[in-house]
Amino acid sequence: MHHDRRFLLLMVPVVIFLLLAASLYLGSDHLTLISGLHVPFLSHWQPENQPESITSSSLPDSDATFTSLPVPSSTVLPPARVDNGTVLTAEKIRPYIDSILDPESTALPRLGCPRVNSTRYDVLRNMSEANDNHVDYYFALDLRNCRDLLPRLLDADMTCALDWTYVGRDPTFYDVWVARGINGDSFFNIPPNGSWDYAWNLFWNHPQTKARLDSNVPFQAFACWNGATAFTAAPLLDGLRFRNVHKGECAQGEPQMFCKDLWHRGFGKIAVVPAVNLEYSDEKAEKLKKLKGFTSDLVRHQTEEDAKIEWAGPPEKVKCMEGWQNQFWRPWNETLT
């Protein structure tokens, strides 16, 4: 793995903990890949900073595979269930839970999913109770990750990858319903008829962001999730939680509400890292990497100055998309003032 000054913060003698949570549909299909992710990533930490617990569900194909994961200081906990199916730890064996892998959960729906929302909360709860500021969280959905993904995400208050899907010959940016540029608009234009015909033209109305995207350097966004995200624990210790919409608020998904609340609490350094590109299947992920390039190669010659972001304040208004055919603008902080 390529090392440069941007990763030196991972080597300092400070107790830094990572919480890794993955929402997976078929556990055994992902575990080999997840196992490979831990080894190069956790090499940045000293052993005492790597406490990790993995919670499996009762799927027949998962238990033996979970116990074989090559994770430093790992403890595999027996599953405990609640009425809504959320996987929880049966007991608090370790004060930090770095991974909660839920093979029965599905990808996030368009609005509100109590099970996924509850799982997110359970992942965060232990860290909040520990009251430790030196924590970073990493969430991933059913993406085919790569080894060089994780370290690149640990910057700013929150950073996101770019997730793509192949609906035709070329990849299309996927998380357009949640993601908003620093100008408050969607990443690509969706006309009133709901067509994605303009999906190829990302940031058509914000040339500064488009230029940074084309150069594969990080750029600021108002909101993102994009399949994989990392964020600091600091606002969570101050009470921030995943939530649904307030009464009278634009009906968007929990990830956008989360970003909005980050801004409201002064954590507006939200960035997208275009050198990290993800897809939802092995075959298409390999195709995407050949097209976009691997993260380590894309950042190899980037300097600290290249990656530097001139952080801006929030846009005055943000586009609300309660449906593709129902789009309008609202104050970025509506219901929060």
UniProtKB/TrEMBL annotation:
Q: So where does this one cross the membrane?
A: 7-26
Keyword tags: Membrane, Transmembrane, Transmembrane helix
What is the top-level taxon of the source organism? Eukaryota
- Is this entry keyworded Transmembrane? yes
Q: Which InterPro entries match?
A: Mannosyltransferase_CMT1
Protein name in the entry: Alpha-1,3-mannosyltransferase CMT1
Organism for this UniProt entry = Verticillium nonalfalfae
